[in-house]
Write a structure and sequence with these properties.
Layout lengths: L1 H11 L7 H5 L5 E4 L3 H13 L3 E5 L6 H14 L3 E4 L3
Parallel strand pairs: 1-2, 2-3
Length: 87
Amino acid sequence: MPERRKAFEVDFGIRSFDSFDEMLASDVSAVAVFTQRHLHGPLVIQALKAGKHVYSAVAMANRIEAIHEIVELAKASGLIYMMGETG
């Protein structure tokens, strides 16, 4: 669907990326994670490690170890992590 994505870029004045990794390597300062619940933890951790502020939908993660890692990464980096209800 590259054509649809390009149309959104034009219609809304945004830029898009081919992958999450490409976006994290860019100059964006914050990301929002709205994916399947089991992916929240890994994607949030990846984004924090890339130096991005992060907002994610509930749940923060599906493993207690990942929750602890997110809290520690946010504390150590000074980055903002925020979880919010999207319903």
